[in-house]
Automatic annotation (TrEMBL):
UniProt-recorded Gene Ontology molecular function terms: manganese ion binding; metalloaminopeptidase activity
Family: Belongs to the peptidase M24B family.
InterPro entries for the chain: Aminopep_P_N, Creatin/AminoP/Spt16_N, Creatinase/aminopeptidase-like, Pept_M24, X-Pro_dipept-like
Function: Catalyzes the removal of a penultimate prolyl residue from the N-termini of peptides.
Reactions that this protein is recorded to catalyse: Release of any N-terminal amino acid, including proline, that is linked to proline, even from a dipeptide or tripeptide
Protein name according to UniProt: Xaa-Pro aminopeptidase
Pfam families named in the record: AMP_N (PF05195), Peptidase_M24 (PF00557)
The encoding gene: ICP55
Enzyme nomenclature, EC number: 3.4.11.9
Length: 496
């Protein structure tokens, strides 16, 4: 573990100095050598797959990586770790996300189910993964059922990886055409001592998997007899316990992502915008220019009083000279996300009240960031209470009456959340547990002053939030997004 932390620190140093990521940071052996062949005789670089591989997209993936920053070996280690958490003979069953449609024949951008992606690295729809404890200790069984290659379908929808790649590339022990899963799955489930799954089909409700499980074959009746949803146990709790602790490579990838996203924010602060949607478009462009795949989520670009709505995403108003603009966004890269919020003056210069309130929030933000270390023995909930007390003191000094429910009105959301493959990572994992090294969270205090007589007149209508993503360290936090400037002097200097 000490070696892991040393490695992460060195990575952070390299990123801050803007040097290319050193190969010396990658100590793990590779599952996928450069010379990997496909179907025993054809070089992988000569074929087409449903997602980038190093052989086909060396500008995206380094040798050995299955997805950006994450090796095939790490995916195998994750599956082995999950298998060891299962009882002997038990299986975990996971389904890929389905394609979501905006209108008939018009699909939205695809995003894989985070748990499925975490264990497989496979980034296509209509797939099923089965991971089991075979009782051998370090080994595990891994079945991956996917869409078979189909030239006619691929003409319209692009390449598929197919069943051969499920074995050759994604390291499955067994594979098959997902169209036949209704015939295959019953016998696998029947032979398991226990079944862990969060797929709706297994808890008695319906899901898109019904197309395969409940089609016009006798397989539907077989499955109904074999799978008693009352004996299916939830899987997400086991995966939350794994996903909440980030590996060396995950932290390195999230740091790279934080650097790219932070630079996009700083570049946006340099510009002069008169409309929220223009700032939104520029920020999204900058995420991609800096290496990200897409937005992590629909950003908040809230000028003036629009910042009083925590999840304002219309982004269709004008930006007025003299107002602040609050921007909450981040890029996504290789499935991982960053989450940043910055607030800055539209004209590049803080007014006195804006500066006073901003510095109050920034002071609390910095003090909470400094506590993101295991030795603090604090949970996110405890950090939230520390932030509340800090904001009370700051607001008192600025003339606010913070009696009664004042702070709940002025600071209505939690200080932070877990972050990783999802914006709100590991859903259901308690914020009451003490933070441990390797966990990644956000720190985002804010103040939102309604436009009414209860509050000092010169602060009314101002909304300010400052947020960074951070990795909890042993004795020191690793801020993942420092390239997004946040000191008043630095923000104002960008326009000069």
């Amino acid at each position: 573990m000490a070696a892991c932390r040393s490695l992460v620190r060195q990575c952070v140093i390299n990123l801050r100095s803007s040097r290319p990521l050193s190969h010396s940071l990658r100590q793990l052996p590779r599952c996928n050598p450069l010379s990997r062949s496909y179907a025993t005789s054809v070089a992988a670089a000569e074929l087409r797959f449903g997602q980038p591989l190093h052989e086909t997209h060396p500008h995206i993936l380094s040798a050995g990586e299955l997805t950006p920053g994450i090796t095939a070996l790490e995916y195998a280690q994750r599956r082995s770790k999950l298998a060891n958490k299962l009882p002997k003979g038990a299986i975990a069953v996971l389904a890929a996300s389905e394609v979501k449609y905006r209108a008939q024949g018009i699909f939205n951008e695809y995003r894989q189910d985070s748990n499925f992606f975490y264990l497989t690295g496979f980034n296509e729809p209509n797939a099923l993964a089965i991971i089991g404890n075979d009782g051998s200790g370090d080994n595990h069984i891994f079945h991956l059922y996917v869409r078979e290659k189909d030239p006619k379908a691929e003409l319209w929808d692009g390449a598929r990886s197919g069943t051969q790649a499920a074995v050759d590339v994604f390291n499955a022990d067994e594979t098959g055409n997902i169209e036949r899963i209704g015939d295959i799955l019953p016998s696998i489930v029947q032979g398991a001592t226990e079944v862990y799954s969060d797929i709706p089909t297994f808890d008695g409700s319906r899901s898109s998997l019904n197309r395969y499980l409940y089609g016009p074959t006798l397989a539907s009746e077989k499955l109904k007899k074999v799978v008693d949803h009352r004996r299916v146990k939830p899987l997400k709790n086991l995966l939350n316990e794994m996903r909440v602790f980030k590996s060396e490579d995950e932290v390195v990838q999230m740091r790279r992502l934080g650097q790219a996203s932070g630079r996009a924010f700083t570049e946006a602060m340099r510009q002069d915008f008169t409309r929220e949607k223009d700032l939104y478009s520029f920020l999204e462009y900058q995420f991609k220019v800096n290496g990200c795949d897409t937005n992590a989520f629909v950003p908040v670009v809230a000028g003036g009083q629009n910042a009083l709505a925590i999840h304002y995403t219309r982004n269709d108003d004008v930006l007025k000279d003299g107002d602040l603009v609050l921007v909450d966004g981040g890029g996504e890269w290789g499935g991982y996300i960053s989450d940043i919020t910055r607030t800055w003056p539209v004209n590049g210069k803080f007014s006195d009240p804006q500066r006073d309130l901003y510095n109050a929030v920034l002071k609390v933000h910095r003090s909470c960031l400094a506590l993101c270390r295991e030795t603090s023995k604090l949970s996110l909930d405890k950090l939230h209470s520390i932030a509340e007390n800090g904001l009370k003191d700051e607001l008192k000094s600025l003339g606010f009456d913070i009696s009664g429910n004042a702070l709940n009105v002025l600071f209505p959301h939690h200080l932070g959340h877990y972050v990783g493959l999802d914006v709100h990572d590991c859903p259901g994992y308690s914020r009451g547990y003490d933070l441990k090294a390797g966990q990644c969270i956000t720190i985002e205090p804010g103040i939102y002053v309604p436009n009414d007589e209860r509050w000092p007149a010169h602060f009314r209508g101002i909304g300010i939030r400052i947020e960074d993503s951070v990795c909890v360290g042993d004795e020191h936090p690793i801020v993942l997004t420092p390239e997004a400037v946040k000191e008043v002097a630095d923000i104002e200097a960008l326009r000069n």
